[in-house]
Amino acid sequence: MSNKYFNIKDTLYDITEKYNEAIELLVSLGFSNLKDENMRKVFGKSISLEEALKLKKINVEIFVAELVDKIKKNEDKLSIKKDTVKISGVLPCPVRVPLTEAFEEWLADKNLNLDYELKAASMGIDWLKDTLINQSKEELPDIFISAGFDLFFDKKLFGKYKAENIFEDITDIEQYNDDFHNEYIKLEDPNKQYSIIGVVPAVFLVNEKELKGRQMPSSWEDILKKEFQNSVSLPVGDFDLFNAILLNIYKNYGEDGVKKLGRCLQRSMHPSEMVKSHIKKYDKPVVTIMPYFFTKMIKKGEPMIPVWPKDGAIISPIFMLSKNEKKKALKPIVDFFASKEVGEILSHNGKFPSVNPKVNNMITKENKYMWLGWDYIKEHDISSLIKKCENIFNSAVKGDERV
């Protein structure tokens, strides 16, 4: 008795090696020794499927029909998965709704089989990490979108897939917006693996009334000065941006710079709190470091002065990773997220400057950006470096000079 999948004269080992479904079914029928890999090899190679079934007095025809049915069902599931484009990621909170609406409108007249989940950045990325840890390369989502460094450069998560070159920048943008391709910064991935669609810049918001004789800070170096100890509010809860700040401070000022950053911390606030911090009665921060978007919330007449650091706003890039094995199916979706339309939603609605060369980010060319750099990323274990910086920072916050 044979079928297109197997012959009952084949050894038990050959069939179970080819079909996990056979192992599951045989174990359920009393072949518990097949759970052990070594036993399966020894016992399975010495007996045919037909002989094994007769040994247990199991009806061969009924078994074959049930096994073939299980194999077919799993093939159908895999076929559906193969044709489905899966997208996972997080979008910056201020633009998640307009971006999702634009995407769904774009999808309306497309015949695409999609499974997508684009959550708000405030939900965090632990759910994405779980996806990476528990799934095989084949089961991974086809497109990932997220800001920050800790997810895409963790050697235990994306690092293993990056090494296998399964991601490719297929946006066709040869040169990014002039804001991100100039003498100070070149944001394009030279290895053409990571796409970037925009950035989240960190700027200062200074309470002029609380300066009390101190000079207006104009750079990251100023923030680290002794006079600003215990006077700065940092976006500690915004992991993407805060990690970018830690990494850039470490790169430019070393461990001592991270310690100084820790000592300057007064408290961590949500950006919406930061812009209203001047109305607090006590413990008003002199400087708040926040995403550029929230400077839009400042009202006229308030003492809050936005300052774009002269050495550059530290940026947390919004990355997009696409599987190259599905390049043809993914191309129209990737083109949408890299488009001028999406770029303008990011830039104009959210103050998250776009890399699309056709978008006017409406930010003066004098305002520079501070970028960690692809060479630096390549030379360091970014995930481990983030943990190291966090430890130095937290110890400095607690006043532990043994750091």
Automatic annotation (TrEMBL):
The lineage of its organism: Bacteria, Bacillati, Bacillota, Clostridia, Eubacteriales. It comes from the Bacteria. This is ABC transporter substrate-binding protein. Keywords: Signal. InterPro entries: DUF1858, ScdA-like_N_sf. The keyword Nucleus does not apply. It comes from Clostridium brassicae. Gene3D superfamilies: Periplasmic binding protein-like II (3.40.190.10), SP0561-like (1.10.3910.10). The keyword Zinc does not apply. Pfam families: DUF1858, SBP_bac_6. Transmembrane segments: none annotated. Residues 7-64 form the DUF1858 domain.
